[in-house]
Design a protein that fits this description.
The chain is α+β, with helices and mostly antiparallel strands. The chain has two domains: 78 residues, no CATH class; 38 residues, no CATH class. It has four helices and six strands; from the N terminus they run ββββαβααβα. The chain has a two-stranded antiparallel ribbon. β2 and β3 form a beta hairpin. α1 packs parallel to α3.
């Protein structure tokens, strides 16, 4: 498995997870976030950035969410993000970064339901 943070300012290096590592909330928080992702994001974006992640179980674990709320002033919590949102996840489709606002508005208009985004 690999993790990366993507923004309009750039992206972090790919962060490879140790082979055989169990990706649970504790590993995500203690290793991926604290040791890898948050320091790399701060190098790329400084201290002011918005954070959004998908709804993987490790991402929505209570202590992972609490850590991100404390560490990031503009954190979009899992409850505010559609559970199945490939059109809104820039790491999955990096060209969406330039169209992010339009896609969020389309999702809002569809009340979180399925929508077809046309460029």
């Amino acid at each position: 498995m690999v993790s990366v943070a993507v923004s309009k300012l750039g992206c972090t290096n790919l962060i490879f997870v140790e082979p055989g590592a169990k990706i649970n909330g504790q590993y995500y928080r203690d290793v991926l976030l604290m040791q890898e992702l948050l320091p790399a994001i701060r190098i790329t974006a400084g201290d002011v950035f918005v954070s959004q992640q998908d709804n993987a179980p490790a991402h929505r674990a209570g202590f992972s969410v609490e850590l991100l709320r404390c560490e990031i002033s503009q954190f979009i919590s899992p409850g505010m993000w559609p559970a199945d949102s490939p059109d809104l996840n820039p790491p999955d489709y990096r060209m969406t970064i330039d169209q992010w606002r339009k896609r969020v508005e389309a999702c809002d208009h569809a009340e979180g339901g399925h929508f077809k985004h046309l460029p």
